Each structure stands twice: as C-alpha cells, then as structure tokens.
Predict the structure.
Amino acid sequence: EPEVTQTPSHQVTQMGQEVILRCVPISNHLYFYWYRQILGQKVEFLVSFYNNEISEKSEIFDDQFSVERPDGSNFTLKIRSTKLEDSAMYFCASRPRQGLVTEAFFGQGTRLTVV
Amino acid sequence: AQKITQTQPGMFVQEKEAVTLDCTYDTSDPSYGLFWYKQPSSGEMIFLIYQGSYDQQNATEGRYSLNFQKARKSANLVISASQLGDSAMYFCAMRELIYNQGGKLIFGQGTELSVKP
C-alpha cells in the first residue's frame, strides 16, 4: 500500500540552526500539507501546497518557515533559525484530489528536538 | 472559538466493551467533512472513519462507527468490542469546503483511550 514517507524520524538540532524536514508524498497525490504537534497537544495546521505554490498558511507559519517541492517527488519544510519552541512532531500529509471526502494520508512524523 | 472540541482528555474502557469518544464542532460552512484519526504511542496518524455533512446515514467502518447528530453539531466515535490495541490517542478533525480552499484539517485536542484487560 502506498504511503507517505518522512525523513529523518528524529532530529536534534541546536537553537539557531537551520533544519530541513523531508517528505515523499504518495505519487499521484496533488495536495500536500505540513502539520505539527507539540508534545501532548493537538495537531496544528502549518501550510498547504498545491500546484507548486502555497494555498494556505497558518499564523504559525511565519518567515522562518518555507516549503518546497524541488523535484516533483520530495516535499520539504525548512525552518531557517530554529527556536526552542519549534520542538515538536512534524507531520507531512497528502491527498489525491480536492473535495470533502478524501482523507489525508499522514507520514509517520519527524520528531524535532531543539536544544 | 474552538472549531473542534473533544471534552474527554482521557477515557478507560474494559476490553470487549464499547466506548464512545465525544466530538463537537462549530462551523458556518454548509459543506464539511468530519474525520477521526488514531495516534498510537508510536506517533503515526491513522485514518479511521469519515462522515460528510450531507450524508444521511452514519458512517461505519468495521468496529468503528460515527454517531453524527448534525443539529447538535456532534460527531462521536463509537468503538465496539474494544481491544487492547485500541489504546491510543484519538483525534476528531474537520475539513470545511467553502472557507478552506487548501483543504486543511482542523483537529480537536484529542482523547487518550486506555483499554483495560
């Protein structure tokens, strides 16, 4: 069964460093998302991406964050200068098409720890 | 205002019994979808079941069913015949159609379910 793949599964970085979280969505999917989950809290939307551009972003997704789909298969989230409060689980998700019915398929997540 | 509310931070259920996890939602969008996801301790998000705002019947998927009461804006998940492997965090989520071009999901706070042997 096709799945969304995220790498790495766990990343530890020093405050102020740049990190890139990588995702390979399911191949025929058209809509891509990043969500984050601070430990013990709910899952929060960061950004949605369609047709090679951001379609929506949350207030969390400030200038420190950026997304790219550099080669038609990978979908990356970059945090330019990490802060302690960026420590969280980051989930990538994808959907095949627009509409209500299609569920988002989530990757297994990348646990980011900023020290 | 919270769009998705799960009022039960934690629930216990005896193995083989049924359990209901509550979810209420708030939207002015006439078209929306409601989803339940399971998050085991390993962390991944597993899709369980979906209910559309125009669906006449409650959704069912194996041991999972969704008790959809549109007028009360509730979409409770019912798990029948609980198993030890059902112990996990459960999230209710909503996707609006008109006010949400990107198709994002809005999640509730989650309910941690523990199944006792």
Notes: Chain A is about 0% helix and 50% strand. Chain A touches chain B at residues 31, 33, 35, 41-45, 48, 50, 55-56, 89, 91, 93, 95, 98-101, 103-109, 111 (CB under 8 Å). The longest strand of chain A covers residues 43-50. The two ends of chain A are 36 Å apart (CA to CA).
